[in-house]
Design brief:
Number of strands: 9
CATH superfamily: Jelly Rolls
Strand order of the largest sheet: 1-2-9-4-7
Helix content: 10-25%
CATH topology: Jelly Rolls
Radius of gyration: 22 Å
Number of domains: 1
CATH class: Mainly Beta
Length: about 130
């Protein structure tokens, strides 16, 4: 009587399924920045009353690129803690910021790209946002 080879093939199939599903989810995760909110408060000082202050960490994985034009309803400061970032602002010029530098996106300023040009290193940025009421 011959033994059925289906048992080893079923294990192989299961292992391949696990491998390809984990590879797909890792690729999907690399397409999105990791954002961790640190603080948010509604301000009460008379000149800022009703405005919202928030801060968060932005982690851009290697080769990350976001090319969606957008504006913020407030001023945003970004402090590069690790790595480097390339920004394309409303004038169409690419500006590069490295660890220790900061950038300022003015209220309603159009910008179109956040790029981590590194193939190996992530970029970590402390973002501070003051949203107008």
């Amino acid at each position: 009587m011959k033994k059925s080879p289906s048992f080893p093939f079923s294990i192989l199939f299961l292992l391949l399924l696990i491998f390809f599903s984990s590879t797909r989810s890792n690729a999907q995760q690399n397409d999105r920045p990791e954002i961790k909110q640190l603080f948010e408060a509604i301000l009460s000082a008379s000149e800022l009353e009703g405005s919202t202050f928030s801060s968060f960490l932005l982690l851009l994985k290697p080769n990350f690129k976001n090319a969606i034009e957008h504006r913020h309803n407030g001023d945003l400061l970004g402090f590069v803690l690790e790595g480097k970032i390339e920004l394309v602002m409303d004038d169409g010029k690419t500006q590069t910021y490295i660890k220790g530098e900061y950038f300022h996106e003015k209220h309603q300023q159009l910008h179109s790209s956040y790029i981590n040009p590194s193939k190996t290193d992530s970029t970590k940025i402390l973002m501070i946002n003051l949203l107008k009421k």
